[in-house]
Automatic annotation (TrEMBL):
Lineage, top ranks: Bacteria, Bacillati, Bacillota, Clostridia, Lachnospirales
The keyword S-adenosyl-L-methionine is annotated on this UniProt entry: no
Keywords: ATP-binding, Kinase, Nucleotide-binding, Transferase
Record-linked NCBIfam families: eps_fam
Matching InterPro entries: Bact_polysacc_biosynth/exp, CobQ/CobB/MinD/ParA_Nub-bd_dom, P-loop_NTPase, Wzc-like_C
Cellular component GO terms, alphabetical: plasma membrane
Name of the top EC class for this enzyme: transferase
UniProt entry tagged with the keyword Kinase: yes
GO molecular function, one term: ATP binding
Superkingdom to which the source organism belongs: Bacteria
Protein's name in the database: Polysaccharide biosynthesis tyrosine autokinase
Pfam assignment, any one: CbiA
Length: 233
């Protein structure tokens, strides 16, 4: 297995670090049966990938072994954002594995963050929804479940593609990332409805990119859903 170096993708302000720790703590209190967690949002750029990677990093600081899977094979920017470089060959990803071109072991990368492992999205494919429904993906998740303490799944926004709702069926819980003041109520309700239809438990909401003066918090977790099966208002 190759190891890659990851660049920080968010300036670590004190408020941001505090919020991440709160998010990590809340996730851990959701119970150890919540291992495979999906992260989605209504729209692109609300901060899913940032939250997923930084939360993963934070979990490793408390000794957890974490796998991040980037399933956004439509417009994946994560590997680029983290400035990932491989020593030899091309950077392989989920699309190589799901299309049957590479075994899982070859698309799994260790990182310079001890305990953090990644499966990047790989090259864009014309049929992401279709290949995500394959048995291969289920197997990758099962492997992750057996091998890691947490599997955090980064997805394409639900407002743009159905992928996240399909993946949600295989997850123990879902977290919705919402950029403050951006996603409209109607769109958000649609996303929540889709997640409910996939019968995943909505663990909470991360309110991201919060403007200064809003309690100083960069993200907030568990606004609704922790105990009410996601039917919060
Ligand atoms: N809390 C935050 N504060 C400031 N910028 C952020 C924050 N979260 C994300 N960003 C920035 O917003 C942009 C989109 O974030 P990203 O994580 O790629 O969103 P998504 O995965 O939902 O498309 C990136 O440039 C990222 O650095
Ligand atoms: Mg993203």
């Amino acid at each position: 297995m190759q190891t890659v170096r990851l660049e920080k993708i968010k300036k670590q302000s004190y408020a941001w670090q505090e919020s991440l720790r709160a998010l990590r703590t809340n996730l851990q209190f959701c119970g150890d049966d919540k291992k495979v967690i999906l992260f989605t949002s209504a729209m692109p750029d609300e901060g899913k990938s940032t939250v997923v990677v930084e939360l993963a990093r934070s979990l490793t600081e408390s000794g957890k072994k974490v796998l991040v899977i980037d399933t956004d094979m439509r417009k994946s920017v994560l590997a680029g954002r983290l400035r990932v470089k491989v020593n030899k060959g091309e950077l392989l990803g989920l699309s190589h594995y799901l299309s049957g071109q590479r075994p899982a072991g070859e698309v799994l990368y260790g990182t310079d963050v001890s305990g953090l492992f990644m499966v990047f999205a790989g090259p864009t494919v014309p049929n992401p929804t279709e290949i995500l429904e394959k048995e291969y993906f289920q197997r990758l998740i099962e492997f992750g479940r057996e091998t890691f303490d947490y599997v955090l799944i980064d997805t394409a926004p639900l407002g743009a593609a159905i992928d996240a709702a399909l993946i949600a069926k295989k997850c123990d819980g879902a977290v919705l990332v919402v950029e403050q003041k951006r996603a409209g109520r109607r769109l958000l309700q649609g996303v929540i409805r889709q997640l409910e239809l996939s019968e995943v438990k909505i663990l909470g909401v991360v309110l991201n990119k919060v403007k200064k003066g809003f309690h100083g918090y960069g993200s907030y977790y568990g606004q609704y859903g922790i105990d009410n099966k996601g039917r919060g208002e």
